[in-house]
Amino acid sequence: VDNLSFYDVGAPVAPKLSIALAAGNATISWTGDGTLLEATSLTGPWNVSWSQANPQTQPAAGAKYFKIGPP
């Protein structure tokens, strides 16, 4: 090996999920890397959200839960 380099890489930062309610809609946004997951029950099953737009607005109707999963 004639070209070997080492890099100091910082620890990964956990994503932060934010949900704001206004006018019957929920605006969902997050910082950091990850995939938006959603479920209709807090115990799951958790599915990849059909939209990975960040931020996104969805109607605030019924029970829906969100979390950020691995990228």
Sheet with most strands: strand arrangement: 1-2-5
Helix fraction bin: under 10%
The overall average pLDDT, rounded, is 91
Number of strands: 6
Give me the strand/helix succession. EEEEEE
Biggest sheet statistics? 3 strands, antiparallel
Task: Give the helix tally.
Answer: 0
Roughly how many Å is the radius of gyration? 17 Å
Q: State the separation between the terminal residues, measured CA to CA.
A: 32 Å
Low-confidence stretches: none
In percent, how much strand structure appears in the residues? 35-45%
Global shape:
elongated
Report on this model:
With 71 residues, the protein is mostly beta strands. Helices cover 0% and strands 42% of the residues. The chain has no helices and six strands. The chain has strands at residues 16-22, 25-31, 35-39, 47-48, 56-59, 65-69. The strands form two sheets. Strands 1-2-5 form a three-stranded antiparallel β-sheet, with no helix packed on it. A hairpin with a 2-residue loop joins strand 1 and strand 2. The two termini are 32 Å apart. The mean pLDDT is 91.
List the helices and strands and how they pair.
Layout: E1 16-22, E2 25-31, E3 35-39, E4 47-48, E5 56-59, E6 65-69
List keywords for this structure.
three-stranded antiparallel beta sheet, elongated
Outline of this structure?
The protein has 71 residues and is mainly beta. Helices cover 0% and strands 42% of the residues. A hairpin with a 2-residue loop joins β1 and β2.
